[in-house]
Amino acid sequence: LMKKVLKVINAVIRGILVAVCLALCAYNIYMLIARYAWGNQMPTVFGFAGAEVVSPSMDDGNGDDIEVGDFIVVQAQDDYAMGDVITFYDAQRAMYVTHRIIFADENGYTTKGDANPSPDPEIVQRAQVVGKVVWVIKGAGTALDFLRSPTGLLVVILAGAAVWVGADVISRIADRQKNGTQSED
Fold first, then answer.
1. Helix H or strand E encompassing 2
2. Exposed, middle or buried by CB within 10 Å (0-12, 13-18, 19+), for 98?
3. Which of 71, 113, 147, 179 has fewest C-beta within 10 Å?
4. If residue 89 lies in a helix (H) or strand (E), which one and from where to where?
5. Contact 172, 113 (CB under 8 A)
6. Are the C-beta atoms of residues 58 and 51 closer than 8 Å to each other?
7. What pLDDT is attached to residue 124?
8. How far is CA 9 from CA 16, 19, 43, 58, in A?
9. What gap in Å lies between CA 160 and CA 61, rounded to an integer?
10. Model pTM?
11. pLDDT tens for residues 65-109?
């Protein structure tokens, strides 16, 4: 019975490792193609995009802020309203910016970083908006950004291989112990 349980656990672990590695490979390949072939620096997957926060503009010190090193998940919406925190492409700075909408009308959105003293100088057009921030993972930006890199992917694959080999070694040791016990009876 123990041997069957170990085999099932081993198969489950290996299945999860293969699925995670394949998903990470597919995601990284898609991101590389989207960024370098299509020129989209913030590609979406099923309407979602993610980014590491690298500026303190949304950290006004009240404790529930978006801080440097956080990871944000952005989702495209049909419309945006005052108070929404959105990520948009700022052509003047040639970068993506995440700020709060402080005014909205038919011309677009006036935005401002929570920690900034004044609104952004340019009106954000609807076409510039990637989406609304729907989830903030505190402190995970640096780690997730690393995992999305080729080096991070290699580390995940090597760690997965180590777990795979470790599960195999444990399974063989358990087999030897069981066979050794049966031989002595």
1. helix 2-32
2. buried
3. 179
4. strand 85-90
5. no
6. no
7. 96
8. 11, 15, 36, 45
9. 39
10. 0.70
11. 899 999 999 999 999 999 999 999 998 888 899 999 999 999 999
Q: What angle do CA 112, 86, 122 make, to 5 degrees?
A: 45
List C-alpha distances in Å: 118 to 86, 91, 152. Answer: 17, 19, 38
Instruction: Pick the more confident residue, 23 or 184.
Output: 23
Contact, 101 vs 83, CB < 8 A?
yes
Tokens of 54: 């690298």
SS3 track for 53-87: CCCHHHCCCCCCCCCCCCEEEEECCCCCCCCCEEE
Structure tokens at 176: 């030897």
Closest CA to 147 of 25, 3, 41: 25
